[in-house]
Amino acid sequence: MAHTHGESEAERSRLGVALGISVAILLAEIVGAILTGSLALVVDAGHLLTDAGGLTLALVASSLVRRKPTAKRTWGYGRAEVLAATAQAAVLLAVGLFVLVEGIHRLIDPPTIASNQLLVFGIIGLVGNIAALGVLSSRRSANFNLRAAFLEVLNDALGSIAVIAAAVVIALTGWTRADAVAALLIGALILPRSLVLLRDTVNVLLESTPRGLDLNSVRTHLLQQPHVRAVHDLHATQIATGLPVLTAHVVVDDECFFDGHASSILDELQACVADHFSVSIEHSTFQLERADHSDHEHETHA
Fold first, then answer.
1. Which of 85, 86, 104, 295 has the most CB atoms within 10 Å of its CB?
2. pLDDT tens digits for range 229-244
3. What CATH architecture is 215-296?
4. Residue 132 contacts by C-beta under 8 Å, 6 or more apart in sequence?
């Protein structure tokens, strides 16, 4: 894996602190939602509940990925962080859809909102979320786990701003539909980010080619190596963040198997995919073949 033991411990600590802050804000907003009757606060509390669950999943996943590979799980639990991030994205998507439906309903039939109390709990939520963002920001791009956690807390912070804005509008104008508008804005913030994260994690689970890696370019570059005649069954996938893998069957000149040149070709191919492309692939497997080997194989792929 690309992360060191020390980095993993630091990431777990950040997730733990962010989880503690989120739980504290959640409890405060549950009380606030009961006292004020605000949909925006209910939605923000529901969002925080999914965040707390997501951060818990992320914390568990960050522990699992540190386990060493075994004969049964040859990549260890590296994909645990992808599964956790996928679950978080799916829940966030469900929350966003609920917000849109309920927000439209409240635009039609707005309830009475206690604006002063709503403002207080909005400020409490914003302060807490800013603190959590500060904890997560420096490592937010380290892996899918931390990326999902950071996006969730960022959405919460923006949601708190929307709650505060709604409280101010209601207090100054009495327009209670501002609460529903704030809830819809929170939903609009949740949906795009959750869809992007869900797309990225599902692509990993479907073993799609890692983003930023062009297999046509890889094939062309491999074919430019000395003694290489053809490349087939070229596949690239991603096990987890920072762990892309590539496999290929490479047809080389027959004499390479008799003059001892095959081993140096293998070194050159592995160095090629590790250093030449924007996505560095340290885990590569090449099967070197003679031209007539295809007669003994099952149907090959591109």
1. 85
2. 999 999 999 987 778 8
3. 2-Layer Sandwich (3.30)
4. 17, 18, 21, 22, 153, 156
